[in-house]
Amino acid sequence: MSDVVLALAINGLVWGLIIALIALGLSIIFGLLDIINVAHGDLFMVGTVGGLAVTVATGSFWLALVLVPVLGFVLGLVLERVVIRPTIRQAALTIVTTFGLSMMLQEAVRATYGAQPRRMAPPIEGTVPLFGIDYDVYRIAAALFAALALAGFFLFLQRTKLGTWIRAVRHDPETATALGIPVARICGITFALGTAMAALGGVIAAPITTVEFRTGVDILPFCFMAVVIGGLGNLQGTVAAAVLLAVMEGVVTSVSDPTVARIVSLAVMSGVLLFRPHGLFAGATR
Question: Transmembrane ranges (predicted)?
């Protein structure tokens, strides 16, 4: 394997772990609330902008890594109560409202920070030898951050009372209500968690991507592909699909251009919908 192919494959793995974090937030929102959040990519964009803004204001990327997801959680609580809950019983209307929310977020960021793309300096600079190539240290750190966040989320779902309630509501909301679980509150918290995960992904990705009001436009289709290929509502499947797609696109990009790589991903998704409509990982534990 040439150095270029290896570097692009590793880049794909790094990006796949970040995308997995974002797509997982989209998946839990769909799995619990049964809505398609068209604004999810723009919540990632808000995370990149917030990461840059906090880092510039405080001089600390690490503070941004903690503060922005917390603010994202609060924003998610507000959006669920004001935007999602009034329309949650009308699927078509939720698509319209979240699309409107997407436009509002983009225009608010453009009006505040301008339309010019910005770059954010990585908090860790330098390279290290990796499989015979010199690889950027921050990209390795970003992959570790994302992997730890993913592991932490699954531990939260399995080992905490709130996580158990979320799984119960996802499985059978009527029985959960009968058992005294506050379903409406759990729905709000779940949407807020999905928003916080998108914001966290944005902060992690900010030093390795451009920061601008359109950053989330390309992220959303990739997240949807990961959710569809992994299986709607299948959290582990979503993570696996995101990583596999990103690595595949990285390898394809080494012999072609990114447009062809995205076409290949769309072809894979089409094949999955045709032959495995419930996703590649249907039947896996959710």
Answer: 12-33, 53-79, 91-109, 137-157, 178-207, 219-247, 259-276
